[in-house]
Amino acid sequence: MNDIVTQALTAIGSGGLVGFTLGLIGGGGSILATPLLLYVVGISQPHIAIGTGALAVSVNAYANFVGHARKGHVWWRCAFVFAATGTVGALAGSTLGKAFDGQKLLFLFGLLMLVVAGLMLRPRTAIVSNVVKTDGLTCWKTAAVAIAAGAASGFFGIGGGFLIVPGLMLATGMPMINAVGSSLLAVGTFGLATAINYAASDLIDWAIAAEFISGGVIGGFGGMLLATRLSTRRNLLNRIFAVLIIGVAFYVLYKSSAAILPLW
Question: Helix 46-70 crosses helix 102-121 at what angle (to 10 degrees)?
Fold first, then answer.
């Protein structure tokens, strides 16, 4: 009984940390979901951690999407095209991920975390462009980027906002705030597609997912409240979080390296 209570509390706390990070700095926070589920909550199988994390990320993304939609930050046509087209990539990526050895998948996940941290540490330059009409060509460009982003999201069971936001900006020329708002529909849909695929193989722990999500909702609310006060320090927060990701990435690489060593 104590073990169940402890696991529930760690799941709520871990979800709260991910939600708080997402609310505070935005994209990139969900990449901590799988390591937390594995090494803090105690899920033993990597694929169950990925499936459970994908479901939690999906719910949190949809919740944040509603807030952005109410503020008019969503370019609906491109958001729907990106989400619908990228879902094909997410289903393909998650199917491949399920067939991949769990420890080897974690090792690649650790490498991905280092890439995400590097992107967060890189100085951001504004993408300056004229207003782009959401015509057919723009949506086809958006769809091409969506396939790649969806495949990566499905394969690793992550939200993929760090890929989707710049992809939308480059494909459509939309401002960052609109890219962030529009991306959340894709993040939620990719996560949902991945979760459904993993659920079909019984690779989701539903109880832990519910606890993780409840913590994420509470943490996300707190993160958004603090974000308004620390908006001028956003770059500093990104760098601090990137350093945290690097530390977690090396731990993931260390724990999963046994699966890779025989290949060297």
Answer: 40
pLDDT, tens digit (0-9, with 9 covering 90-100), for 166-176: 777 777 777 87
Q: How far apart are CA 15 and CA 141, in angstroms?
A: 35
Q: Which amino acid is at 128?
A: V
Q: Which helix (H) or strand (E) holds 119?
A: helix 102-121
Would you tell me how many other CB atoms lie within 10 Å of the CB of residue 180? 22
Tell me what pLDDT residue 221 has.
79
Find out whether 89 and 194 touch, Cβ atoms under 8 Å: no
C-alpha to C-alpha distances, 261 to 8, 161, 229, nearest whole angstrom: 34, 31, 46
> Is 0.90 surpassed by the pTM of this model?
no
- Cβ(212)–Cβ(52) below 8 Å: yes
Q: Report the distance separating Cα 263 and Cα 255, nearest Å.
A: 16
- Bigger pLDDT: 171 vs 54: 54
Structural domain total, the chain: 1
Question: CA-CA distance, 109 to 239, in Å (whole number)?
Answer: 20
Residue 127: is its pLDDT beyond 60? Answer: no
Range 95-100 average pLDDT:
92
Q: Please give the structure tokens belonging to residue 131.
A: 């207003």
Give me the domain span that covers residue 231.
2-263
